[in-house]
Amino acid sequence: MLLSRYKDIPVNKPVFKKKGSNPMLFLVEGYLALIILGTILLSCPFSLQKDLSILDAFFTATSAVCVTGLSVIDIGSTFTHAGLWILAALIQIGGLGIMTFSTAILLLSGMKPGFNQQALFKSGFTTEGGIEPKKILAAVLPFTLVLEGLGMTALFTQFDHLPLNERILYSVFHSISAFCNAGFTPLPNSLMSYQFNPVVCLVVILLVLAGGIGFLSMSEIKNLFDFKTHTIQKISLHTKIALIATLVISVMEMFSVLAIEWNGAFDGQGWAEKLLSGAFVALSSRTAGFNTIDPLTLRETSTIIIIIAMFIGASPGSCGGGLKTTTAAVITLLGINRLLGRDKTQVMGRTIPEETVDKALRIFIVYAVLALVGTLTLLFTEYPAGAIGNIHSHFVYVLFEVASALSTCGLSLGLTPELTASGRIFICIFMFVGRMGALFLISAVVNKKDSGTWYAEEDIMVG
Q1: Quick check: 160 and 167 in contact, CB under 8 A?
Q2: 234: helix, coil or strand?
């Protein structure tokens, strides 16, 4: 009886939904694949002038793809011209992004990127979701190639002491490296030989700024004046904050370093040369990693200021890394508004959404924790018990290295070539995290779930 009562009732079979592909995970896998490919190519005989271990090849490929610039070898004497061209290609792809090139390839082949891929691609360049990827590519790629071409032409005129093939290679390499904020150079002492060459210094600075300000901001600056209507176009709040933050941070760093090093590392230079050196330090140290003076000659105060600047880094949607200028600006604005007794974060007649403020705080916390963990880890691996020495110098050296890797800057106080195998692997991980973004990596591997549970409030004493 009981069975007959239920036998005619239709049974709903469980439906298993096919798990969609995660475009964030695809991006992570794409960068990892490019690093592995770069490691293989840089290890081939046609790329090398002398022997190179697989770990050092992996470190170099990771640094290039993550547009960092840290190196455990002298790339100019290690790689052949073919190896340097491969390195330049890795920097270019890593700087513009895997999504940029994969989307361009799909569009050129007549295929249309998936919705998730389009959304992820557009999020790297603009806050507006309605713009087609084709239009973004049509703006980004020519803009990049034109600027790099102009930079290459200017640098070509300054490398006239080199043979023609090296002159072309070095011009292209430095132009790509500067625009992508990589800081790589085949020269053995970075750009110290061109410390007082205004053309080389200014070209590199301008390329670094263009690549680090963000494509959205550069696009709005480029289209600021409408020649058809003879009117000035509106600039978004994002671009205003990015430009102001970049200007304020750069000027503060420049004058701080000048004041500290006027009779220090810059001693013996003329006032114009000091200004050029100070400007180069301020504009290159945040994320590019080129240097015209030996960082070891700087005083410890200047070194700490540079660490803070590296920690902040470039602007969102750019080739550079770091906490990002707008993130630092939002956190600063939050503090100012709270001190003024405001519940909302307001600036320039606008209110910044709480979601954006919350994201900025999470990014800051994650980066601060990573910097602390990274410093403690490297202190343990590089300075074992019984080799304490000057603990303050060790701490600054290691913190500088970690900040440089995490912000994909590339400056070093000389610790990089001396890293142990475990230290090199650890720095590789940090360079990758810095390029991807800590929150992005967390979102790529962790599914966000809201439990929907709310608990009763209970106050605690603070302060």
Answers
A1: yes
A2: coil
